Amino acid sequence: MSQARPLSGKTAVVTGASSGIGRAIAERLGTAGAHVYLAGRTRDAMEESKTRIEKDGGRATVVALDVRDVTHVQDLVGRAVRETGRLDVMVNNAGLSYPTPIVEADPEEWRAMLETNVLALLTGCQAAVRAMRQCKVEGHIVNISSIAAQRADSGVYGATKHAVTCISNTLRRELEEDSIRVVDVRPGAIATNFARNFAPTFVANFVRATGMKIEVKRGERLPDEVMDTLQPLMKQVLGSAEDVANAVLYAVTQPINVNVAEIVVRPPKQIAL
What we know:
alpha/beta
């Protein structure tokens, strides 16, 4: 294992890899030598990441799926093991937020958050543990949570991230006799399209800071160039996806007898999420 490619010969799966934190993690693991399976809804975006990984000498496979379908997640892990013979890193990153007040919210928004942020993550954890045991690897399961898990009043989204903390802690205890580590990563405010379901007026304030004239519509992704311009301008309150990716790489390249249980990655000043 070279220092430049510490994950050479290993296999990693990353959900929610179409954009933002998931994309950054997938590309970082790919450049570190892993064969990365990028899973998400937007194939074109993941194909672009695949091209970047391969240009840097790595290997990548794109899988378009909906993590809310349990069988899709199980099949994703199964495919990675069939095609590469192993699974070393499972990153459960897919997530979404609807910040609508509880008394005004559509219950279908709650369902979407619970199925994406909790059920899909649980399914990914379970499938990964079974695969890693079968392959007899020294594995890492990385659950991308949020600093919202540290607040008692962070809404339904925060409740799903409190669940991630509980799931990660419980699974870590269950795996104490296994060569599998569980990492709970809690990003703060990061310059991604995470806020696409927030009020357009809130998001528009950030877009204006870039000097770009772009119409903001709820639920629609902003162009990558907006985020690339915005983060350096507002680095005191917005971290970068690459910061989170670097933290993940650090955690999964530690010796198996070291359990990096929790990592908080946030900018100097914090926005409540």
